[in-house]
Design goal:
CATH superfamily: Alpha/Beta hydrolase fold, catalytic domain
Strand content: 15-25%
Number of strands: 10
CATH architecture: 3-Layer(aba) Sandwich
CATH topology: Rossmann fold
Distance between the termini: 18 Å
Radius of gyration: 18 Å
Helix content: 25-40%
Shape: globular
Length: 336
């Protein structure tokens, strides 16, 4: 089980400037007496919910960041541009319909680069480990392929890689594909950004839980905190009925291309030890994604693929016996 020290971690919030018009929110989570030699890891959120709501909820079992910190890691949680407390593109203040998706993977790679450089300077270290969940894993892989010398270890959780042209949610003939242009992203479904209600956070998640009583699988208090934190991440949420928070659609466009078998980055460029984690009940990543990653990670000194038994896409927010404890053990063992 996660250490009892989880209640004693120290949290500090920072804003990292990327340029004159862009700053990125970063939270530092660690034990107060942590050694300067401790390994550092950056947690990267997915397509909709930003960093703190994804990785540092203030309820039991809701903070992957604190659980990793209690095991001796210096943990950092970031918000990519357009999410949470980071700078939002000006286009997110306009209507989104029919416009180009904001915040693509190449933008996020610059954001990760700025935060990694800041962590390296703060900790006086040459490299940082990256952990990416879902689209966050896709972003982490993209960054690691462009800046391989800055990554000490790479952990991808439930991420796409273009291993198949078939996907039940995002692929061909889904609402993400332009009905008039096969293989092109549908700007009418997801324009520059999209609005996310509380109800939208639990639909596909609950369908992936194989029991009728969802509360037996995930703590209802944690689910409530997750929804509240997601809504609170956007100051405009309560200006709409029902309340909804904004998330850029660039993540969805990139994921659509990966879902139909296109590759946005090449894992052969990665030189960090790479751990590929997949939940057995994941609705996002596919077995073909991790197998293609295994084949392409030819310059990674170590590669390990682990299927988290009976776990869901939201494994880090589920109960320990449903894969969460195994996830923590695998990440700590790999990074340390």
């Amino acid at each position: 089980m996660a250490s009892a020290q989880v209640d004693h971690v120290r949290r500090q919030d920072f804003y990292v400037p990327e340029d004159a018009n862009l700053r990125l929110f970063v939270r530092e989570v660690m034990l107060p007496d942590l050694s300067q030699n401790a390994s550092a890891i950056l947690l990267i959120h997915g397509a909709r919910v930003p960093g703190v709501a994804s990785f540092d909820l203030q309820v039991p079992g809701g903070s992957l960041a604190a659980d990793l910190a209690s095991r001796g890691l210096a943990v950092y949680v970031m918000d990519v541009r357009g999410y949470g407390a980071s700078t939002r593109p000006l286009g997110m203040n306009e209507r989104p319909e029919g416009k180009q998706a904001l915040v693509r993977s190449n933008d996020v790679a610059h954001d990760i680069a700025a935060v990694v450089e800041w962590i390296c300077n703060r900790r006086h270290i040459p490299k940082v480990a990256l952990f990416g969940w879902a689209t966050g894993g896709q972003w982490a892989g993209y960054y690691a392929s462009v800046f391989p010398d800055k990554v000490s270890a790479l952990v991808l959780l439930n991420s796409l890689y273009g291993g198949s042209s078939v996907h039940p949610l995002m692929g061909h003939h889904s609402d993400m594909e332009d009905p008039k242009h096969e293989g092109q992203f549908n700007r009418q479904t997801c324009g520059s950004y999209r609005l996310n209600t509380e109800k939208s956070l639990f639909g596909v998640r609950d369908r992936s839980i194989p029991v009728e009583n969802k509360d037996s699988w995930r703590d209802p208090a944690l689910a409530k905190a997750f929804a509240e934190a997601a809504m609170a991440s956007d100051t405009t949420s309560n200006t709409r009925t029902p309340p909804s928070f904004r998330s850029p659609c660039g993540a969805m466009e990139d994921s659509f291309y990966l879902a139909i078998g296109r590759q946005l980055w090449d894992a052969s460029l990665i030189t960090a030890p790479t751990l590929v984690l997949a939940s057995e009940r994941d609705f996002w990543s596919r077995p073909e994604d991790r197998e293609l990653l295994r084949n392409h990670l030819v310059h990674a000194p170590r590669v390990k693929i682990v299927v988290l038994k009976d776990a869901t896409h939201f494994v880090h927010l589920d109960r320990p016996e449903h894969g969460r404890q195994q996830l923590i053990d695998e990440v700590v063992g790999w990074v340390r």
